[in-house]
Amino acid sequence: MKSKKMLSIFLCAIMLSITLVGCGSGTSDKTSANSDNVTLTFGLWDKNQEPVLRQIADTFEAQSPNIKIDIQLTPYGQYWTKLEAAATGEVLPDIFWINGPNIVKYASNGILMPIDDKVKEDNIDLSLYPQGLIDLYTVDGKLYGIPKDWDLTALWYNKKIFDEKGVEYPNESWTFDDMVEAARKLTDKEKGIYGIAARPDTQEGLYNTIPQAGGFIISDDRTKSGYDSPEAVAGTQIWVDLIKEGVSPTLEEMADTYEIDMFCAERLAMVYAASWNVPTFMSNETIKDHVDLTVMPLIKERAAIIHGLTNAISANTKHPKEAWEFVKYLAGKEANEIWAKSGVVIPARTDVLDTWKEAYPNLNLQAYIDELDYSIMYPVSKNTPKWNDVEIKYIKQILFFLPAITMPAAIATMWKWLYNGQYGLINQLLNKLGLEGHAWIADPKYAMAALIIVGIWSSLGMKIIYFLAGLQGISKSYYEASTIDGAGPIRQFFTITLPLLSPTIFFVSITSLISAFQMFDIIFMMISKTGLAINSTMSIVYLFYKNAFEYLDKGYASAISILLFVIILIITIIQLKLQKKFTDY
Prior knowledge:
Number of domains: 3
Helix content: 55-70%
CATH architecture of the largest domain: 3-Layer(aba) Sandwich
Strand content: 5-15%
CATH superfamily of the largest domain: Periplasmic binding protein-like II
Radius of gyration: 34 Å
Mean pLDDT: 83
């Protein structure tokens, strides 16, 4: 009995030991798990900023040895496509860059983690950041990111070109008119130098000049465009006028060579450039020693669009605590000092801006800082990327076509020079080819053909706009469905494009025919009134003018006007009849 009792005590002791060891093992495992490294993935697109971020990440890792940062670089052209695919598959990086045009879309779809509570818990002072950026990254009352950096646009100028022309440097007192006047003096077509670039851009162009003219891009409730207001038209027209006046490169030239590259090549005396261009300018051996900047010139009021990036946290991250710790560090003074010393971007915190200025002591970087006082939030809504694409497309169309649809006097003067029988460019080219030139607008045999070419050329831009509008109205679904059915491009053109474009074709044909009968200004300014070609180029409207205002035969002139009305009426009726047969609605 005693031996059995001792055996029982011995077995109980063994069981208790095993239990204690088991508990100890569990505690050890838990401690081990807590000490395991956590790797946070970080998505970005700028290779120039990657080394600085790596330096900041290394500093953070030294302070938080259990957290590692895996930086994943994706070129900007692929970044948003990759990010959207990752969001769909719920495999987003733990932390990634987000900008204004995309913040509402990602935040409103539950893809980003709100950080309001964390900001309050850690007593982060948001007053150290530009209010426009805090507003930008606040969606439906929730904050989704602390600003990483910010950018504004300033007027850059080449002091060497200004000195050569004896023009005073721009300063903060300049108006837009002062800038245009200087651009006229600085433009040197023989050297291929323009005074300024009329940038077909939003953030570095229209987004600034429209509010400066008193307009707005989108309403405060993000539901209405402001482009149809007189102020917005004025803020757009000033860029068009620069091209028309010849002090800016044409849109075709800027499509071939980026405006910033033109400035770096000393083909531009001035350019509107955002702060992210500072490293580019300062690393360019051609211009770095003789460029500077000032605030954008005044139109009606001071305004500057502010934009920037934020470090957003994925709502589905498996490491929300660690992700917040790194984002919080990125928002701190130590990380911002590193950004400031690098000079790559303007750090978001206003208490390190003096450090950023020291990175480029020879530049008036205070200009960007001064613009903070009247900065305006970058315009965004839930579908910003979609309407932004449409916006840029139409801006380029405006800048491309409006100079072509210019006043008849300018058209006539240009073509008279081209057609001149003695020194005209057309005859010079023909002579180089060994061909005989002609008196194109003085010889009755060629004058009418010459005027027809001018008429077609002068109206081509507007007709292209009409056809572009017609093509944009054709849904892609028609082509996708026909492709599935095996239709090729030729069949699609004749069965889809041509029928659906027929209303546009009808409109262009009837207006072109009416315009042909009404031709007057080109004839009046290009054809000599005493030359032989005047009779062979006489239009019915020109005949009306001669009888009404030169011969003072009002009765005959009235008869001509009635005849013109009858002719146009008959043509219109005929085309309306044909419309039912050849036009599809």
